[in-house]
Amino acid sequence: MTPSSYLEQQFGLTGQTAVVIGGAGVLGGAMCAGLLQAGARVIVADLTEAGCQARVETLKQHGGQVGYCLVDVTSRNSLELLLKDAVAESRRVNILVNAAGINAGNDFLDASEADWDRILAVNLKSIFLSCQIFGRHMIEQGGGSIVNIGSVTSHLPLSRVFAYGASKAGVLNLSRNIAQDFALKGVRVNVICPGFFPAEQNRKLLSPERTDSIMRHTPMKRFGEPEELIGALLLLVSPKAGSFVTGAAVDVDGGFMCSWL
Ligand SMILES: NC(=O)c1ccc[n+]([C@@H]2O[C@H](COP(=O)([O-])OP(=O)(O)OC[C@H]3O[C@@H](n4cnc5c(N)ncnc54)[C@H](O)[C@@H]3O)[C@@H](O)[C@H]2O)c1
Fold first, then answer.
1. Strands of 66-70's sheet, edge to edge?
2. For the chain, percent of residues with pLDDT exceeding 70
3. H or E element: which one contains 51?
4. pTM above 0.90, yes or no
5. Distance (Å) of CA 18 to CA 150, 189, 191, 197, 239
6. CA-nearest residue, atom 35 of ligand 1
7. Mind telling me the catalytic residues?
8. 13-252 architecture in CATH?
9. What are the boundaries of each domain within the chain?
10. How much distance in Å is there from the Cα of 145 to the middle of ligand 1?
């Protein structure tokens, strides 16, 4: 077997359909590109037409099959329509990536209840809803793989992002709980915990002081590049290479989680 056919057998996604929620975003977009290049048909799912269209245009350079559907992850109805559209387009969904997310930074006493509700709805309740809706479909179709995007703050508190931290800790706990529930039903559920990658949702939060502090705690002394998430993603979604991996949290963080002093 040649190296490329071995890699294709281990990690290839030909014939699989992947829905990437938050696919118009910075990290979701890189993950769409990785899935597409590994052979999957990709459906970009995000809030706005303009965001989805721009992402699809960029992805077309990789060839393969890519389309988009609009979704608001805070709405069960909207997620059900997304599944319906995805199934109409490609019969079944094999892979779901949950990469939508929002953030807000404040001192605790200034953190607003409205932000708390919004962040918990977009970052955490969306995982409950989408894993139920897509999980049921995958079980009925004979299997699948779900990857939810956590954060280093799934493991420990980061200052000033109270609702975000609580939501991401919830993403990890909930994902592991669903992973055990689905383990004998053919659906694997895993979490990628990225470190720090400059993107839209954290642009305002990355002040020079915070960036300094992040670098002091990141042994590799740099931000991540979105493409650096693809290797972990392909392992987790691959029916062959990832077949015995469920309930895992893969940190892609330049060593942030191993740096305590
Ligand atoms: N960038 C980082 O450093 C970092 C680190 C850890 C975790 N994350 C997580 O990675 C994921 C992707 O974030 P990103 O950094 O690429 O940010 P981003 O802002 O570039 O992308 C987030 C996407 O989510 C979409 N979105 C927001 N609300 C939505 C809703 N209600 N319905 C559907 N889509 C919605 C946005 O339109 C956007 O395209 C998020 O879950 C984020 O929390 C990011």
1. 66-70, 41-46, 17-21, 95-98, 144-149, 187-194, 249-252
2. 100
3. helix 49-59
4. yes
5. 19, 14, 16, 23, 13
6. 100
7. 164
8. 3-Layer(aba) Sandwich (3.40)
9. 13-252
10. 20
